[in-house]
Every structure is written in structure tokens, then in C-alpha cells.
Write the C-alpha cells for this entry.
Amino acid sequence: MKILVVEDELKTGNYLRQGLQEAGYLVDLVRDGRDGLHEALTGDYDLAILDVMLPVMDGWSILRGLRAAGKPLPVLFLTARDEIDDRVRGLELGADDYLVKPFAFAELLARVRTLLRRGKSKDAETMSVLRAADLELDLLRRRVTRGSQRIDLTAKEFALLELLLRRQGEVLPRSLIAAQVWDMNFDSDTNVVEVAVRRLRAKIDDEFPLKLIRTVRGMGYVLEDGAQDSGGQ
Ligand code: CA
């Protein structure tokens, strides 16, 4: 776990660096805001601890720069006791937590641990969302959206879409789909897969200009970004 500390006061900066290193973290310490933003944008950090009042560029500007660049790095602010509006301002800018100076190191460490844990669960959340173009399937919330539109699927349609998304770009034979989604051996007399694909298309493809599911004649189905429907079954 790597932490960026941006603090211009020598004593506080060194105290933070030493304490965090003793707690087992890798720490980079920089002393002005411009270096801070550059490091935060380019370095591989799990957390940034930012002082508010900094030379060249203040802590708010660093946070604004990070969020503008779409960087989801968790940020803990250090604010002075008399900066009473800071909490509100920081919240609006997307800060994750605050600590008022002077603070006990144990308190800082507790906040750091919480933020790092939260960051990890955000990663796990990202991995539970499957995407193709503007289609999103959220495995945790069991929710499917295309653009801003929420789409209701049955359990089987959901499983079918999940399979197609997990193996994007791959032509999946009907027999494989039948085995994985319905847990049954393919029977040439049943058209259960065709029917399910047609229903799924009606929900996720038919009313959208960009079609995602393509039929590969005599072979099966493939889900791709920007697939053109060749028609037929
Ligand atoms: Ca300062």
C-alpha cells in the first residue's frame, strides 16, 4: 500500500512519513501543491493525504485536478481548526475524509485504514460490472442498463447475457449456451436457446441503433461492440 503525503510543514510532514512507514506503508512526501498533483496523477498510490494550505497550489485544487482527470484516488484532508467551512467545501469537491490539526497519530492511522479498505471494496465492485458499449450488467445488484435505461431481465435472460458478456467476441454454439445457462444437454428438437436470444434481443438490442448480439449462421451467437446483425437464426 502506497500513500502520497502533500504537506509543506517540515515537522508535520516528517512525522506523518515516519509514522506511516512504521505502520508498514510506502510513503512519498512532497511539499508543494503542484508536485503533489503531478505525483497523485502519475504515481501508483492507494491514498493521498493532503494539507489544505500549500505553496503554489492548495489542497482543494489538487483534489479538483484529480477528480477532473477521473482519478478515483481516495483523499484524506488535513485542515486547521479555524477553517470551519472546509468540511462542506471538501465534501462538495469529493474528499473522502478529514482530520483537524492537531491530531493524534492513532486517529490518523484509523482513518487511513478505513479509506484503504473502502478503496479495495470499490475495486471489487468495478470488477463485478460487465460492459459492452453502453450496456452494463451489474452482478452484485443484479441490474442491467443500456445507456440510462434500466432493463428488466428474467433470471435465465440475465444468465444468458452474463455468459455472452463474459465471452465477448467469441462465437458461442447453441449447445454450449444450453449447457451453461439451462444446465441441459442440447436437444436438436428444442429451440429454447433461439427463443431466449430473441427475447433478450427484444430487450437489449431491438430499440437501439447499435446491435450487440449477432447471429453466426450455423454456429451460434456472439456479443460484440458494434456488431452488425446478419439476420437469420
Ligand atoms: Ca500547510
User: Anything to note?
Assistant: Helices lie at 10-22, 33-42, 59-68, 86-93, 105-127, 155-166, 174-181, 192-204. The chain has two domains: 2-127, 129-223. Residues 8-9, 51, 53-54 surround calcium ion (CB under 6 Å).
